[in-house]
């Protein structure tokens, strides 16, 4: 009596999760976090209209959602000045990244990303047997020229660029990306992850035709729109590529209230503006607290601030551990030299108060811990 | 300026959706359906406690859901008398079927199913390059002996069996499945789709150890629990297989209110009992209406009744088209000789009234249409 037979690719994959969620940490600690500032969620929540729309639609949850996402696609198309045929909905950008990799990457195919960029993208590439080529950050920015040069060198199927960048909060102008496109090799798809674009300055998204076959842009209702738990992201690009998702996606995979809520969220520009205002306020507050403790806040075009702890990765990891122990959920970059930083999501005044209270103690503990180890 | 390069497998796939949803048909017709009886949704909806729980949790939708599904897995484990390590959650059975195929099937690998069984399973197999071998139904039942013999003959990685069966509503006893297991070839995984098991007689699920490495069972909150639009299904089986899903699944892919709602739904056995009572009532009513119109209702262990229209597939398709034109959303089997039937989901008394009103006219139209064509 034997079990199933796994292909070599699957057998060799680790049973990992790219991120450990805060609930898991809370169960391990036996205590709730006092401030949830680690996953770049929007503690300000979605538009009250989106909340009301979702609550109403719960009564209709016995129905499968419209698999063609007709209403939401049309609303997005009007907003993006394109057609519904340019848009694909998915289970967050995570789900769409998985679909994109599946559409293009066969075992052994080359894929390019920045070393220390989004781990879930890397997870999908590994899951389909792609070979990742990683390019270092340059001055805490993703290095567009180096990414595209590497793509040409290794004949990449995909090059991944997040703009603004997670985890560093840095960004390039849309003009810089548009100018770089002539160096994108033929046959390489640029996956431009714009999860944080609502927080970024005007002009951060490149002014390129939506039908340009060389790129797909991805956005989400998880960040600015405050609906991370709804699981709704979208990609937009040339119709031929968008149609290809219909070959493989889980057509009836989207939650019905989420779809209705996203439509309402999209129509409440006032709420988004308010969130942007609150996020800007909180980012200033994070910077103030960081600087009061002798740390440096990096410029950010996102809803988080990456804070340079001023030493190496071991020190930042000790700071992070001490914050987590004191009930502050935060995360940090994985790769040197970016791992000298911790990453703090914008929060409410009460979240900032917890940060202000706990950070001096966390820094002291980290210094002591490293002295003890040294 | 060229687009991305698709692997041959992807390039050859059709841009299809396994099912056309009722919303698409409504837009095409320019009118809403009067009765929604085509997708085996539960018009009776979820437990009021589940509705309340989801509405409350909408306020928390800014948070990603717990990617380990801790609370829900523990509740399911208690119910199924197994451990959380035996359980995987997914975006409906559809999502889990996709994951299962991905875990096991490489291009060219053999997979066995019944001819006319669940199209979405076939969609996933095609999507990963598997080769489908189809076994005919036998007396409107899936033919377990023939399925397992075919699996041995073609050295299948997976054999798919739904019990109770969709679209025929027929079922086998759990004892019959357990007895057949000794003929399941080594190295073949039995995917036992129990989406409708809540509606089936005691003993329909085989009494086999949950750690048996030869099978995975799949169940859902979409049918008996009335939460199709929430997108939540689960698989249970041996821990090694369950862990393998962690290698590839979209860990943060589940909607947060859906997860909380499912937990509440699971704890309201009274509501499920009430739904079973209402479904049984409606099934009797469908049978009565069918027989009053000279049709035969097949026995069903699900929340739908498959009705034999008494002639060939062309006739049943004409009946279905006439019902749809009159505002009754129903579906039918795709493959002969099962396509002599239409499939009608249990509904409320008002849905049954619409069926009773429209069926005679639909049958008359179908007879006329075929006379005209003949």
Automatic annotation (TrEMBL), chains A, B:
Any GO MF annotation of the entry: histidinol-phosphate transaminase activity
Required co-factor? Answer: pyridoxal 5'-phosphate
Write out the GO biological process terms: L-histidine biosynthetic process
Residues in Aminotransferase class I/classII large domain copies: 37-355
Which pathway does it serve? Amino-acid biosynthesis; L-histidine biosynthesis; L-histidine from 5-phospho-alpha-D-ribose 1-diphosphate: step 7/9
Instruction: Indicate the enzyme's highest-level EC class.
Output: transferase
Q: Name one Pfam family in it.
A: Aminotran_1_2
What is catalysed by this protein?
A: L-histidinol phosphate + 2-oxoglutarate = 3-(imidazol-4-yl)-2-oxopropyl phosphate + L-glutamate
Secretion signal, residue range per the UniProt entry: none
Keywords, sorted A to Z: Amino-acid biosynthesis, Aminotransferase, Histidine biosynthesis, Pyridoxal phosphate, Transferase
EC number of the protein:
2.6.1.9
Q: Which domain of life is it from?
A: Bacteria
- List the coiled-coil residues: none
Which InterPro entries does its entry note? Aminotrans_II_pyridoxalP_BS, Aminotransferase_I/II_large, HistidinolP_aminotransfase, PyrdxlP-dep_Trfase, PyrdxlP-dep_Trfase_major, PyrdxlP-dep_Trfase_small
The entry assigns this protein to a family as follows: Belongs to the class-II pyridoxal-phosphate-dependent aminotransferase family. Histidinol-phosphate aminotransferase subfamily.
Q: What is this protein called?
A: histidinol-phosphate transaminase
Q: Which organism is it from?
A: Pseudoponticoccus marisrubri
């Amino acid at each position: 009596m034997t079990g199933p037979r796994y292909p070599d690719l699957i057998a060799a994959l680790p049973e990992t999760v790219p991120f450990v969620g805060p609930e898991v940490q809370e169960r391990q600690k036996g205590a709730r976090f006092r401030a949830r500032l680690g996953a770049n969620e929007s503690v300000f929540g979605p538009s009250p209209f989106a909340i009301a729309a979702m609550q109403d639609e719960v009564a209709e949850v016995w129905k499968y959602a419209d698999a063609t996402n007709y209403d939401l696609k049309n609303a997005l198309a009007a907003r993006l000045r394109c057609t519904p045929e340019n848009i694909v909905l998915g289970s967050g950008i995570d789900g769409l990244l998985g679909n994109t990799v599946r559409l293009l990457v066969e075992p052994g195919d080359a894929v390019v990303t920045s070393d220390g960029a989004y781990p879930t993208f890397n997870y999908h590439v590994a899951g389909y047997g792609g070979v990742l080529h990683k390019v270092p950050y340059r001055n805490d920015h993703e290095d567009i020229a180096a990414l595209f040069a590497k793509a040409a060198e290794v004949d990449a199927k995909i090059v991944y660029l997040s703009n603004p960048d997670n985890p560093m909060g840095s960004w390039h102008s849309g003009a810089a990306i548009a100018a770089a496109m002539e160096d994108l090799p033929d046959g390489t798809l640029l996956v431009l992850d714009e999860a944080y674009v609502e927080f970024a300055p005007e002009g951060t998204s490149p002014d390129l035709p939506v039908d340009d076959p060389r790129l797909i842009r991805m956005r989400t209702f998880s960040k600015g729109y405050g609906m991370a738990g709804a699981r709704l992201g979208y990609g937009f690009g040339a119709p031929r590529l968008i149609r290809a998702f219909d070959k493989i996606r889980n057509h009836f995979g989207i939650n019905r209230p989420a779809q209705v809520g996203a439509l309402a969220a999209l129509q409440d520009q006032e709420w988004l503006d308010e969130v942007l205002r609150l996020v800007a306020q909180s980012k200033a507050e994070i910077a103030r607290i960081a600087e009061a403790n002798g740390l440096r806040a990096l410029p950010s075009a996102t809803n988080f601030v990456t804070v340079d702890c001023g030493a190496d990765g071991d020190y930042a990891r000790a700071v992070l551990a001490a914050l987590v122990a004191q009930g502050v959920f935060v995360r940090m970059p994985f790769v040197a030299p970016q791992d000298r930083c911790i990453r703090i999501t914008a929060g409410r005044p009460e979240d900032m108060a917890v940060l202000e209270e706990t950070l001096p103690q966390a820094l002291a503990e980290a210094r002591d811990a490293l002295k003890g180890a040294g």
